[in-house]
Design a protein that fits this description.
The protein is of the alpha/beta class. The protein has helices at 22-32, 52-67, 88-93, 119-132, 139-147, 165-182, 198-203, 226-237, and strands at residues 3-4, 39-45, 70-71, 74-75, 77-83, 101-104, 109-112, 152-158, 187-193, 208-209, 211-214, 217-221. The strands form three sheets. An eight-stranded mixed beta sheet has the order 5-2-6-7-9-8-11-12. The chain has a two-stranded antiparallel ribbon with strand order 1-10. The protein has a two-stranded antiparallel sheet with strand order 3-4.
Length: 247
C-alpha cells in the first residue's frame, strides 16, 4: 500500500489550500465531538511571504479549534503560535529549525510541514486519541514500548495525496504517545511532508510514500502492521546509535 512520490522541487501550493465545505465542517465537528480532554498544539511558523504553507497551516488549526467541542468552558483544541523572528527562544527550546512545524504532547509528536490533503485525517484522529487516551494499540505493544530504553526517532515521509500515509502517521504518533504516557518518552514520531521538505526525501531516496525511517535507517516503504513496526523499533533500539538529531 504505497503511493508514488514525484519531487519536482516545488511544493504544489494548491494541495495546501484550506478549503472546507459546509458538509466538511459538519463532519469535522462530529468527529471532534469525541474529544474528552484539552489538547495543546504548538505551531512554529513565520509571518513572511517566503513560507507559502505557513499561513494555510494557521488557518487549518483555527478551523480545527473552532470545530472542537467545549471542554471545561473552553475549546478542546488550544493553539499557541510562535513566530521565528520573535520567539527564537521557543524554537531553540524545542529544537525546531523548519517552518511550519507542529508539536503535540510536549514535542514527542512532530509535523514538519502542513498536514494537508489526506494527512488532515490522520492529524485529526491523532488529536482525538490524545484527548481520549484511546491509543488503539495492543496490550503487548504498550508493554514493550514502556520497556524500551534506547531513543527511537521515527520519521514518516508523506505527501498530501497519499491515501495510506495518514494510517502510517497515526500509528507512529500513537507509538510516541504511548511511550510518553507509559514509558520513558523516548520515542519521537516525526511526520515529514515531502514537498515542503524535499531535502529529507532526497536524503532517504524516497520514491514512494509512506516511507518510514527509524533512527536514520529506511525500514519500511509502505504501511507496516503494528507488530512489524514494534519489532523494528525493538531491534534498532539495541543497535549503536549514531547522529540522530531532529531535522
Amino acid at each position: 500500500m504505497v503511493a508514488e512520490f514525484v519531487d519536482e522541487g516545488i511544493a504544489p501550493i494548491d494541495m495546501f489550500r484550506v478549503e472546507f465545505s459546509e458538509d466538511d465542517l459538519r463532519a469535522l465537528e462530529e468527529a471532534l465531538s469525541d474529544m474528552k480532554n484539552p489538547v495543546e498544539i504548538l505551531l512554529f511558523t513565520e509571518k513572511s511571504g517566503e513560507c507559502l504553507p505557513c499561513n494555510e497551516t494557521v488557518k487549518l488549526l483555527e478551523v480545527l479549534r473552532e470545530a472542537s467541542p467545549v471542554v471545561a468552558g473552553e475549546k478542546a483544541i488550544k493553539v499557541k503560535v510562535f513566530d521565528r523572528r520573535h520567539d527564537y527562544e521557543m524554537f531553540e527550546k524545542y529544537g525546531v529549525g523548519r517552518v511550519p512545524t507542529i508539536l503535540l504532547v510536549d514535542g514527542v509528536i512532530r509535523y514538519l510541514g502542513m498536514p494537508a490533503g489526506e494527512e488532515v485525517k490522520g492529524f485529526v484522529e491523532t488529536l482525538i486519541r490524545i484527548s481520549t487516551g484511546d491509543h488503539g494499540l495492543s496490550k503487548k505493544t504498550v508493554k514493550e514500548l514502556s520497556e524500551i530504553s534506547g531513543r527511537i526517532h521515527i520519521q514518516v515521509i508523506v505527501t498530501p495525496p497519499c491515501p495510506y500515509c495518514p494510517y502510517a502517521a497515526l500509528m507512529a504518533n500513537m507509538f510516541a504517545f504511548v511511550a510518553k504516557v507509559y514509558g520513558r518518552g523516548n520515542v519521537i514520531s516525526e511526520i515529514v511532508e515531502a514537498f515542503e521538505n524535499p531535502d529529507v526525501a532526497d536524503m532517504y531516496g524516497v520514491t514512494t510514500v509512506p516511507t518510514i525511517v527509524i533512527n536514520r535507517r529506511v525500514v519500511f516503504v509502505g504501511l507496516p502492521y503494528e507488530g512489524q513496526l514494534l519489532k523494528a523499533i525493538k531491534r534498532l533500539s539495541k543497535l549503536p546509535r549514531g547522529t540522530n538529531a531532529v531535522l
